[in-house]
Predict the 3D structure of the following.
Amino acid sequence: MRLALIADTFPPLRTSGAIQLRDLAREFAAQGHELTVMLPSHDLTRREPWRVEMYDGVQVVRLRAPQTKDIGYARRTLSELAMPYAMLRSLRASPLANQKWDGLIWYSPSIFHAPLVQALKTESGCKSYLIVRDIFPEWAADMQLMGRGPAFQFFRSVARYQYSVADVIGVQTEGNLAYFEQWKRKPKRVLEVLPNWLGKPGARSCSINIADTSLAGRKVFVYAGNMGVAQNMDIVLDAAERLQDRNDLGFLLVGRGSERDRLKRDAETRKLTNTLFFDEIDPDEIPDLYRQCHAGIVSLDPRHKSHNIPGKFLTYMQCGLPVLASVNRDNDLADLIRDNAVGEVLEAGEAGDLAKRIECLLGKDLDSPKIRERCMELFAKHYSSAAAVRNIVERLETHSF
């Protein structure tokens, strides 16, 4: 099939979304589909509003649009509103201006792509598949980052327009299905679970060698990824402080994010000798990093009400690494961990409770081949990029839902 994938993140960015879309794009190409990835780019000019490049057998089209990252909220909102129209205008100036598509796929976040998708869908007479990875603005309101006033209503109307354009919506867990029940009532719409996915792990040597750090010889709990408000990483530092006297345990926090520098300063102020911070590394180095560790950390703010199985959980499972999870109550991830015996989980608990879960996990043989096998079997069964691509293609090929 000739397919277009529309998103706002892709390599060289190193976000979890960029890695997911990289793996998905590679798999579309591997299965013989002709995929074009469309991305906004604020680096392009009016004279050259588009750029076409190849990435692992996939055509990537970067289209001039306003900057939407690393800017203030008000400017970002205006830029994201303009983004799909700017992308469409830039696309009209490119060699793909008259291209017809057999299917359209787009990834949320962002919630602002609908005008572009609607235009291409109308021109090509094809179906569209929306991959929903978080439900905004609901999660922001749940975490009290936003009230439920005019701003919330505005963003919700944008999101609802996005949903109205989709023929199929794929959410990441069963717990998210209820939110879209009303959307599903319209004839010929399909709502389903499309679990997160990962492609083959990278093989690059990691620039972090734990044997050369103060954590050498310890059982290392690792977190690699975004450290923002939604991750609630403070509970990890609080637990680390409670376990400071254990010289067989260490915490390695790798990545970037709005809270990262504050967390690092906090750890230094508390003199947490069992905790180290490193800057973000190349995603292809992650598997080699995890081979040096003993457990992976997942942390989500307990105020979340939506269900989330983070991409880093998949990476832990793929690498055979048991997980320590601190999540919101009734999150689908909690049952997944318990039912498959792949780690310890705390639901909406305190730091003292998390410290106990850590000690419980330490009491198990973290080097046991059986634990590694359970983790890897869970990944292979549910989270391959090949299965995700087959599912999306099957839906787009079916004209009568």
Q: What stands out?
A: Residues 2-198+384-397 form a domain with the Rossmann fold fold (CATH 3.40.50.2000). The chain has a mean pLDDT of 93. Residues 320 and 368 are 10 Å apart (CA to CA).
